[in-house]
Amino acid sequence: MNWNLRKLASSATLALLIGALLALTPVACHSQEQAADASGALATSERWRDFQPLRPMLEGPEYHLIEGYDPVWMYRVREGVELARDYYGSFGPVHVHVLGKEDGTELSAAAREVFLRDYCSTRRGLGDAHFEDCMQRDGARLLDVLERGESEAFLSYLSALDPPQAELVFINNHLWHESDAVISDATVRGIHEYTHVFQSSLGPLPTWIMEGGAMFTEVWIPYREGLRDWGEVMLWSLDSARAATDAGLGIWDMEEIESAPAEVEEHYRGLAYDGGAWAMVFMVHRSAERRVCGLREVFYPAAKSAGWEAALCSFARVSSKQEFYAAFASFMELSEEDQLAVLSSLEQS
Fold it and tell me: What is the pLDDT of residue 36?
């Protein structure tokens, strides 16, 4: 289905919608000192406690492909990583590991050994015990996933290294591939995971911005490249986001997944990824210029310098995160047509 969002956004409907959503009168944002205090809860979480940001660098990621896996899968991941790196800039150091095996192939003992030593080599900077632990546990777990025929994609952050490093791991990419897709899902995952690399150059961010920002980027960049219909993809996300809303939950429940209760964690996908992606749409809609690139050019730099809460209230023109959460909750109660009209109203530059 090819959604023509411009047709959905009739002038009468959109004028009424924007008037309702902008009814809140923006006031002054938090000061930088207040923002630092407001972000303190995240900064004391396990994820962010010893956080040191990735640094800007000229060099791109180092790519590693396990022996015996078709190089096309690394090519497709690399395409996504490089699209996101072109968009956000180059940060690192980053190692990208692509591993898997397709039906009828076997992973040799030699290939296993080479992968383990390659993957775990960065841990040598932390001492021999960390290297051996990786060989026996973390690296071995990835090979177990490969052998079971399952798929994963994630960022692993090695904050204890000096400088800190990031690893992007993609397992069994071929299981994601749809032969008739214009853009491979492996490429989309590459965009998503490199967005986390960029976010790791900033500072503490809530889970809904981390995952929602990456989810929105994996839709936005292919759309800019003419490879994906963002209206169709964002419409799919609404179903998942609405399920969490129907359960009485919202993105405010997903500031820190590590401390979320079980009933919230059950809706991790709908709150963090899908709800978070629509929250990014709403942030842009609330911003002064409604430019999608404002996330990259205004919001994220402000989050680095002043903290995410101060950046949120300044960019979305609200007095506090609570005011934003309340406005977003009202947005989630709108009709599907009106929500898509908001998406179509964004300045696509």
Answer: 41
**CA-to-CA dists, residue 276 to 208, 214, 241, angstroms:** 5, 9, 8
For helices 207-224 and 185-199, give the axis angle rounded to 10 degrees.
130
Same domain, 73 and 131: yes
Give me the long-range contacts of 324-331 (CB less than 8 A, separation at least 24): 324/283, 324/286, 325/250, 325/251, 325/252, 327/21, 327/24, 327/282, 327/286, 328/250, 328/251, 328/279, 328/282, 329/245, 329/250, 330/20, 330/21, 331/21, 331/278, 331/282
pLDDT digits (tens, 9 = 90+) for 64-116: 999 999 999 999 999 999 999 999 999 999 999 999 999 888 999 999 999 99
Instruction: Note whether 80 and 22 are same-domain residues.
Output: no
Cα separation, 131 vs 142, whole angstroms: 15
Structural domain of 274: 5-50+205-345
Tokens standing for residue 289: 């210029």
> Are residues 192 and 317 both part of a single domain?
no
Query: 137 and 117, same structural domain?
Result: yes
Domain count, the chain: 2
